[in-house]
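Protocol step 4 of 6: structure prediction from sequence.
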Amino acid sequence: MNQIQLARSVLCVPAVNRRALEKSATLPADVIIYDLEDAVARERKGEARENLERLFKNNRPAGKQTVIRINPLDTDFGREDMRVVLACQPDAVLLPKVETVANMAAASAILNSNGAPLRVKIWGMLETPRGVVNAAAIAGAYSAALAGGRLEALIVGVNDLRSQTGVLAETDRTYLVPWLMQVVLAARAYGLRVIDGVYNDFSDTDGFVAECEQSRAMGFDGKMLIHPSQIEGANRHFSPSDDALAEAHAIINAFSAPEATGLNVIDLNGRMVERLHLEQAEKLVALASAINQTGDAQ
């Protein structure tokens, strides 16, 4: 089984904030996104790039995945941002407002033509109606898992999606759920990770927890965060519960019994369990093992 890369907590850090950059290496987030786009004013883009180059040269964060979010590649800002990506070589570059396969092709071409190692992946932000509609095509064309490309993960940008569709910010996200699930399906079809968008009110712990639980139920791997106070909650709610782990071990043990040899379906405490449940159980146990290795057992 391939090594599991955790993405329960995906924290955005403005690249213009030097204090936040320095602190980022000490935070228990699975992924840090260093933001050159929305969180940085136009007149400070250059300063933000310099901050990132300094950080990766002198104090590259260890023990977590690093992602740089750039500006759109059809802008001068985006092209300059890619120069920083090539210099810093983070684990991934996050493309904003991905709408077509061509957006992926442009980023991939820059990385390939400049000799970026294949370990530098691409993450795609789907935050427009067109991006969500094209999710499957985008995922299938450049999947690192299945198509030999660099695309590793998709993130749903819920704020922009609401803005462009007119969907209201309801607590249970009733009208967003079909679109969220469309992205989850596209990601799973092509072996990608998939991250839910931000919860804006970081002072509303109960609301954040409820949305994490909803995200987990829909199949998301984790949540994009805007504040360090959200990390612990995301890590907890996107980790297997004790009950789920106990159930997983019971399924694995049942299929390991001699009498289950060659069977595709077994009886476990009066209910039918199939080998697909065994695969799910093994994935859950592997996820728990990866979490334990971070020292963040829940």
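Step 5 (inspection) to follow. Residues 242-293 form one domain.
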